């Protein structure tokens, strides 16, 4: 087993995902001095993403660029990655705790007989040991874990570990061929996205979230306006999704997305424990609610007791002026 870390990077819409640079940093924090760090990226038309990645990796950037890999599929990606990983023999593999990372990491761990620590939010060294902290019980407690053997696999929660700085000299891009295995049991025929070109919710630095207090689909407009001015994303509670005010793709919480933005603005959200599970690690929480007893105020750094339909336009206007 080499002293070598491999970061499995992700691209979306022609851009390298921010979490991939955080994964590079996680590999740097895990590696001992002298350990090599390389990266692996799969997809189609990856020239720009590979170039971006090479700026942060001093080792090799392995690229598998093929039309069959345009969309993530566990079977295809795993079949493309395994031969490479088996030849690289890394002691550690780092992925983002994203939809892809959550699916792929345990599959790779099973194939490579690797240990896995998931959803890591911080990494510390204690002597020669590397300790990984991850939230448990829906964010009510944290546990610290360490690996006792190699190889090991790590998934990191987006927006928690700082991104890697640019390397002193760019890494070397190495292209690899891909031939689809003849015995694939599933293939993706088509992907129909609901994407709107907005900021990705799970990586957004600012999230403006609406709950049942938003009252209707149109009620989300003031939230969208504030998010636009702040360059943030719009999220929602399950209450708002269940009421049909917005798409379930926006749901934050125990059964939705987990977000850790710099600023989370909860509008008309009561603060149920299942909602907190998806946002309580946000750096600054601002709550707008007309009920001063709403539980969301217990975890909010700043609270505004008032009607969101009066407060939001005022905030949007002030931010528009301040950011002009
Ligand atoms: C197994 C399970 C999983 C769940 N998973 C999730 C999950 O992933 N995410 C999630 O969010 N929930 C989840 N829930 C649901 C959760 O328990 C709550 O029911 C839900 O979060 C409530 O949504 P809400 O805060 O929008 O609505 P409510 O609890 O109805 O709160 C609405 C709030 O809006 C305020 N309000 C009303 N009008 C205004 C106004 N004009 N201006 C300002 N404030 C106003 C009210 O004072 C109130 O506090 C789950 C529940 C279960 C059982």
Task: Give the count of helical stretches.
Answer: 9
Distance between the termini: 54 Å
Instruction: Assess the beta-strand content as a share of residues.
Output: 25-35%
Q: Architecture of the largest domain in CATH?
A: 3-Layer(aba) Sandwich
Q: How would you classify the helix and strand content by structural class? A: alpha/beta
- Which molecules are bound in this entry? flavin-adenine dinucleotide
Could you please describe the fold and organization of this structure?
This protein is α/β, with parallel strands linked by helices. It folds into two domains: 4-176, HUPs (Rossmann fold); 201-323, 3-Layer(aba) Sandwich (Rossmann fold), CATH 3.40.50. The protein has helices at 18-30, 47-54, 74-88, 99-112, 221-230, 238-242, 273-276, 296-299, 308-323; strands spanning 4-9, 11-12, 15-16, 36-43, 60-65, 92-96, 115-120, 122-126, 129-136, 141-145, 152-156, 172-176, 206-210, 233-236, 263-267, 284-289, 302-305. The strands form four sheets. It has a seven-stranded parallel β-sheet, sandwiched between helices. A five-stranded parallel β-sheet has the order 14-13-15-16-17. The chain has a three-stranded antiparallel β-sheet with strand order 8-9-10, covered by helices on one side. Strand 4 (36-43), helix 2 (47-54) and strand 5 (60-65) form a beta-alpha-beta unit. The radius of gyration is 21 Å and the shape is globular. It starts with a strand and ends with a helix. The relative contact order is 0.12. Bound molecules: flavin-adenine dinucleotide (FAD). The site of flavin-adenine dinucleotide (FAD) has 27 residues, from helix 6, helix 7, strand 16 and helix 9.
